Amino acid sequence: MLRSKLLREIYQQPNLARADLTRITGASSASVTQIIRELLEEGVVIEQGREQEGLGRPRVMLSIDPAFRHVVGLRLISKQLSGSVLDLRGNCLCTLHRNLPSFEVSQVLQELQALTEDLLNMAGLQSNQVLGVGLALSGIVDVTKRSCVYSFLLGWKHVPIGELLEAQLGLPVVIENDVNSITIAQKLFGEAALLQYFAVLFIEEGIGAGFYHQDRLLTGQNNAAGEIGHFTVVRSGRSCICGKKGCLQAYASRDALLQQARELGLDVETLQDLHQAALNQDPEALRLLTFAGQLVGLALSFVIDTLDVPLVLVYAGPLSEDLTFQTALLEAVRYHSLPLVDSERKVVFKPAQQDLWLSGAGSLAINAYLNGDITLPPLLSPSFSHDRPPR
User: Fold this and answer.
1) Helix (H, G, I), strand (E, B) or coil at 72
2) What is the third-level CATH fold of 70-183+355-370?
3) Does the reported pTM lie above 0.85?
4) What digits encode the pLDDT tens for the residues 17-29?
5) Which branch of life, at top level (predicted)?
6) How far apart are CA 63 and CA 125, in angstroms?
7) 34, 172, 200, 322: which one has the fewest Cβ atoms less than 10 Å from its Cβ?
8) Rounded distance, CA 268 to CA 278, Å?
């Protein structure tokens, strides 16, 4: 659809002129001019300056208005709900966090609705000023049916959480795997914005990856692409929550590392404690982090060689700053990756940030709008009240 393509191009490359869009899309000048006129009338696109080239008419530069509408990003994992309100460029207006009593679906829906209402109250927005809601959650997600197919961490199986939440909020709801949401955010407003191929690896309670291939999120037939944490890296190894043995997640996830550290006699409660033990040259901590880094690097080499990605962004919490873990991972990637490819392949360690997940969740609604999957909300009275104070 030409409208979506034009919106995407303007979003990804600010300050394009109509002539640029005609050249990029291959559409007729008349078609491009007509749709741009509609987008200007709606307010999503704005004219932002003029650029004179030669003696002809000046080029009118186009851009997305970040404040045109806003989105709500919600993240559900473990026993905490987090949410934020973002503008269309991913800038955060406000953030809230809330403990979740249980994963019982009706309880979760109640808490998600209350959190959304409180967020809009804090931001001073009515629901008709919101494009939609993005919900990022752990597990295998059917984006089309907006269903959590299976989540080990939540204990859910075939839960149509997107449809249920949309019915409660009266707002469009888009759901996605949490790591995929970060991958989309990197494409929309991160350092991978201009790349057609890249990967994101996240190590936390679980281990997952997201991939962009030919400028599209790679999800697979069953929306299960990216479950790198369940690659078998040690034959007949430690038991994993998925029921297999020897999975990467059973060795290099946060909980697995802490469990192994305690088995070795280390007094650690967090990955930061384990990182500090390695800094203090504790031999068991050094050995444990070296082995974990080697296994993650082995798994990453499979991804790099299979998808031929030039960039992998690694979010591993305190481990992203741990030299022992970093060195072991990078050496394993170099050792196991195909050495015949000339182009540079970079693995970049990124510090974990709480708002990273919320940017990812919010990006789901922005991405859906750019794709034409979300239409503009009608300017009607809000679907729910914001009279009560935030909890």
Assistant:
1) strand
2) Nucleotidyltransferase; domain 5 (3.30.420)
3) yes
4) 999 999 999 999 9
5) Bacteria
6) 23
7) 34
8) 11
